[in-house]
TrEMBL record, chain B:
Residues 5-82 form the ACT domain. Catalyzes the conversion of 2 pyruvate molecules into acetolactate in the first common step of the biosynthetic pathway of the branched-amino acids such as leucine, isoleucine, and valine. Dimer of large and small chains. Pfam families: ACT_AHAS_ss, ALS_ss_C. GO terms for cellular component: cytosol. It is an enzyme of class 2 (transferase). One of its GO terms (molecular function) is acetolactate synthase activity. The gene is ilvN. Pathway: Amino-acid biosynthesis; L-valine biosynthesis; L-valine from pyruvate: step 1/4; Amino-acid biosynthesis; L-isoleucine biosynthesis; L-isoleucine from 2-oxobutanoate: step 1/4. Belongs to the acetolactate synthase small subunit family. CDD domains: ACT_AHAS. Its EC number is 2.2.1.6. InterPro entries: Acetalactate_synth_ssu, Acetolactate_synth/TF_NikR_C, Acetolactate_synth_ssu_C, ACT-like_dom_sf, ACT_dom, AHAS_ACT, AHAS_small-like_ACT. This is Acetolactate synthase small subunit.
Length: 562, 169
């Protein structure tokens, strides 16, 4: 029988057996034993962030760029609570992740000990599974469970809380290959009868439409989607999380729909007679007013989580299935449909209101920046923060095959972008990473510049600097009589802090300011040459709007166009 | 909105009750009662949950519960024959001898083979102990409140089990 080992040794053993080569960590008193064990370990890269929230976003960027399960290690108390926003973000975007938190020793749990919090309780509604290891003998089983649950079915974050004494207690060295979980049976098959019903519905449609979400990417079903849509001549629209699952140059792709979707795409959702939705949970940003969503359509919903089906939109044909498996089966019997007339209608709508921005009165037009990114970085992974720039990126950045679009779709977390870009670069260092961010969101996690410079990742930061919290200001402009309360980030005399160029200098990082359209491409080219971090401070007008826009809670067809 | 019943087999672990009840509060589902206890397997608990919900919401509740890693099995008891009982203690205060007699008569009428009894008595107080159905307990409470001035009620949630004989309900 093998000799007993400490919990901290089993932790490292588990990571190795899971094939983990990188973890995102921040130390603290209740995790120092594991940190010390990592010091003695070869083959696992430990990335030190500067804030635990950012650390989780870095892990998210890593997971989104690689498809691997990301691992986060933080201490108890504030270390653990700082991760909560990141965990929620990962939960809403279905990111596979295992978060390990240190915890006070077992005998102190519940005593309000120094740096003690009930992190499992706090994160119960934003994790797939969470547990405090209360017995050293259960540790291997629980860690295995964590990895299994995080990465299968609808992926998501799992939190494993390890008390300090468990880390140093000796016990079984066994780390299981697989754990049978009585209550967890992720769906792996598809109900063929339901799928055929869905197919028949589509086949008889006059105005069929596919709505593809992030689930298609998670399932790795991009090619299957293209094959299916092409075989049947059905147009495809995407959600924000689904951006990139359909090649943008396909004649069947009509762009994103939703709150800031294209006119033609939103019209298509409103006018279609069968909506085949796959890998989306019908977030309210996609549906607008629920009662008016796809009012003329019978709706098919394919999703791996049956709990996502008919939650927001009541559907006619539910299909619980992995997107790839469902599309593979559908492709087996898909036949061409005559959708010429419908496609012509869509083209006419696109012609009626093409997606384009008016020339900006001040600074650089956001569309011009996005087009510059398309020109200079046609193969880069694109990461965004949250705000107007995120919507402009979804509208104007064209994705080619192999490009990931990494964005905070479900939670809409400002501060997500920069750390996620760092994580994406760590996960895929050979690929250029372009971050599209705003001055508001960037300032929420800009301390991570130290992380980026220290570990030497390569990210081009395209900072859309309009000195405001643009998305809320846009709502104030359109719906609140231009009462710009607390959205102007400048001082009363117009001074702006920080001066991003001088700030970047403090980190010894290259920084360029661009104030007109002519400077866009040269700056991006210079950034491409520079291996490391380049910050491009694009001066953008605060009055530039993201349009079309569907006001929250109104029908998708009611778009503000000017 | 109708009353619905669910039986839930869950892992008998710290935090599982909080996770199940947390689902109801987080999603704004109208949880009526929830009882929990262990089963013949020590590591498995069974919950009986009653909710008031429409058809669509009730389907969602079942799906959301099913999606929980700690939930082993969800059984919809709404449409199948079941046996169901709820424990109830009712203390009636301020009784004279006529009132006490009436209290005993009520207990006798509601009794179904030992399911209602006066289990304790004081100078002007009697204590009812009941294991009736939730509806029958409601009737008893209504009657006690209509007949007596000071009634103190302690209710446990219901516990339900699938009937062996199909005709039982």
């Amino acid at each position: 029988m093998a000799l007993n080992i400490t919990g901290r040794k089993l932790f490292v053993k588990a990571l190795k057996e899971e094939g983990v080569d990188t973890i995102f960590a921040y130390p603290g008193g209740m995790i120092t034993d594991i940190v010390d064990e990592l010091y003695k370990t070869e083959g696992i890269r430990v990335v030190l962030g500067r804030h635990e929230q950012a650390l989780v976003h870095e892990a998210e960027g890593y997971a989104r760029a690689t498809g691997k399960t990301a691992v986060v290690l933080v201490t108890s108390g504030p270390g653990a609570t700082n991760t909560i926003t990141g965990i929620a973000d990962a939960y809403y975007d279905s990111i596979p992740m295992v978060i390990f938190t240190g915890q006070v020793p077992l005998h102190l749990i519940g005593n309000d000990a120094f740096q003690e919090v009930d992190i499992v309780g706090m994160t119960r509604s934003i994790t797939k599974f969470g547990v405090t290891v209360r017995n050293r003998e259960d540790m291997g089983k629980l860690i295995k469970m964590g990895f299994q649950v995080a990465s299968t079915g609808k992926p998501g974050p799992v939190l494993i809380d390890i008390p300090k004494d468990i880390q140093v207690t000796s016990g079984s060295p066994e780390y299981p290959d697989h754990v049978d979980i009585r209550g967890y049976h992720p769906n792996e098959n598809v109900h063929i009868g339901q799928l055929k019903k869905a197919y028949r519905l589509l086949k008889n449609a006059k105005r069929p439409l596919i709505l593809a979400g992030g689930g298609v990417r998670i399932a790795g079903a991009q090619k299957n989607l293209l094959e299916f849509a092409t075989k049947m001549n059905i147009p495809v629209t995407t959600t924000i999380m689904g951006k990139g699952v359909m090649p943008e140059d396909s004649p069947l792709y009509i762009g994103n729909c939703g709150m800031h979707g294209r006119f033609a795409a939103n019209k298509a959702v409103t006018e279609c007679d069968v909506l085949f939705s796959i890998g989306t949970r019908f977030n309210d940003r996609i549906t607008g007013e629920l009662d008016e969503f796809a009012p003329k359509a019978q709706i098919v919903h394919v999703d791996i989580a049956s709990a996502s089906i008919s939650r927001n939109v009541v559907v006619d044909v539910p299909v619980t299935a992995d997107a790839k498996i469902a599309l593979e089966r559908l492709c087996e019997y898909a036949e061409a449909m005559d959708t010429k007339k419908w496609l012509c209608e869509l083209k006419a709508w696109e012609k009626e209101h093409p997606l384009t921005m008016p020339k900006s009165k001040v600074g650089v037009c956001p569309q011009t920046i996005c087009e510059g990114i398309n020109e200079v970085f046609p193969k880069a992974n694109i990461v965004t923060d949250v705000g107007q720039h995120q919507m402009w990126a979804t509208q104007f950045i064209k994705l080619n095959e192999g490009q990931e679009f990494i964005t905070s779709g479900g939670l809409g977390t400002m501060g997500f972008g920069f750390p996620a870009a760092i994580g994406a670069s760590i996960g895929n260092p050979k690929k250029d990473v372009v971050l599209v961010t705003g001055d508001g969101g960037f300032q929420m996690n800009m301390q991570e510049m130290a992380t980026a410079m220290t570990i030497g990742v390569s990210v081009v930061i395209c900072l859309f600097n309009n000195s405001t919290l643009g998305m809320v200001r846009q709502m104030q402009q359109l719906f609140y009589g231009k009462r710009y309360e607390i959205t102007d980030l400048s001082a009363e005399d117009g001074s702006y802090y920080p001066d991003f160029l001088k700030w970047a200098e403090g980190y010894q990082c290259k920084a360029i300011r661009v104030t007109d359209a002519d400077g866009v491409v040269p700056a991006l080219k210079e950034a491409k040459k520079n291996k490391g971090i380049t910050l491009i401070d694009f001066i953008v007008s605060p009055d530039d709007l993201v349009l079309p826009m569907v006001k929250s809670g109104t029908p998708l067809g009611d778009m503000i166009l000017k | 909105m109708k009353n619905r019943w669910i039986a839930l087999y869950v892992e008998n672990q710290v935090g599982v009750l909080a996770k199940v009840s947390g689902l109801f509060s987080a999603k704004s589902y109208n949880l009526q009662t929830l009882t929990v206890g262990t089963t013949e397997q020590e590591d498995v608990s069974r919950m009986t949950i009653s909710v008031k919900a429409d058809d669509v919401t009730f389907e969602q509740i079942k799906k959301q519960l099913n999606a929980m890693v700690e939930v082993i099995k969800v059984i919809d008891l709404t449409t199948i024959p079941i046996h169901m009982k709820e424990i109830l203690y009712a203390t009636v205060h301020g009784l004279d001898s006529v009132g006490k007699t009436e209290a005993f008569q009520i207990a006798e009428v509601f009794d179904r083979g030992g399911s209602v009894k006066i289990c304790d008595i004081g100078g002007d107080t009697v204590l009812f102990e009941c294991t009736l159905t939730e509806n029958k307990n409601n009737e008893l409470i209504a009657l006690l409140k209509s007949r007596f001035k000071k009634v103190q009620i302690v209710r446990g949630g219901a516990v339900a089990v699938e009937a062996i004989s199909r005709s039982n309900r």
